[in-house]
């Protein structure tokens, strides 16, 4: 069966308030970013599934802005299901985000027309 | 037939740079063409001898056609494939194959960019990712900063150690009259510059300059007739694992591990044999990662290795002897300059920064956000 357009579907789910990623029933692997085929295995039976929304900060940087613009956290978050994604960690000063921090996903307005997934410290949620 | 059969079958017979630093008014193709002409002249050849053209320009995706027309030649092969700043070392790999197969006789690899005086900032050819762009990472620095954060977390690497890479580069640049940035630079000076993407400061980042470079590669039989001592290509290999930094499995290990392993195997050499190392230092973390991944020090030891003084003038392993992308020049795709400097060192043409008796050199290119890695190992004739 041919996939619905993966990129468009991801953002459509977000527009509907749902954070959904792909999973292959045949291999059991979770996939992000959304694709027509799973990397490595080549599985093409990818289905859209809601992940737990929980994850751990894997890598961190701070995009330093010229004041008065605020500094922005740029992080790679490893979802509990396995895949990693670039995102922001919000609800905490950008320079206080640490590797290993437990975080929870939240859907917010992006800078463009799309909604995006950001993360907040799990404890604050 | 194995990759090892390619060892020493081709040699660099020409090398040149042009317009490094600022070259106001020149277009990218004009800079590339002048570097190309100089490299051909350096080889004692005529433009009409060139039958293989390899090139990248910042914003011309058909630059192989452009340069052929510009030179008024009819090449048998043009190649403007792009892997980011490593492209020119992958070009050397393809040229080596085409030369050895007899498809072409003389390959010119060239590059030019006017990004400093033309655009005023890095000109990127990378399509924005729909899964990165919404977060507006200040790429490429943000991606390298993320890798640096992991190296610090896993191995205790410090900002001071990162800064020592920039300091060594500047010490070498001070011996290179062509270097754009000169003058004293201390670890404290680096740390006093503005943070761009933690933990990387302005002085942890490569320059934004103009500049052009070119090399000529031919078969060993023809290289004997070259005007200058030929520099043999003993090994060339490339590898790629990802394009977006979030997709790299371990942010402290790059595909340089594979490209280096294959290049060393082809050359029949080990890191201990190498006299001088030219690495693509887009950011200070690069030098640390590539020294580890290419086998010059154990994984995780890169920070301590670079801060020991090993890589600077007088150190045990001369690295980036031209001053690198951090202090010599960085027109956007620096890779070709690693080859030019390796050739100059092996020819004994490096002036005050010459490594006495250098016989074997390694040049390493990086493209994208640690995405594409390409390694070339070069040697003087007696090493073949």
From TrEMBL, chain A:
The molecule here is called Zn-ribbon domain-containing OB-fold protein
UniProt organism field: Novosphingobium cyanobacteriorum
User: Which residues belong to any copy of the ChsH2 C-terminal OB-fold domain?
Assistant: 48-107
From TrEMBL, chain B:
Q: Which PROSITE patterns match?
A: PROKAR_LIPOPROTEIN
Which InterPro entries does UniProt cross-reference here? Thiolase (IPR002155), Thiolase-like (IPR016039), Thiolase_C_2 (IPR055140)
> Which SUPFAM superfamilies has this protein been placed in?
Thiolase-like
Domain Thiolase C-terminal per the UniProt entry, residue ranges: 237-379
Q: What is this protein called?
A: Thiolase
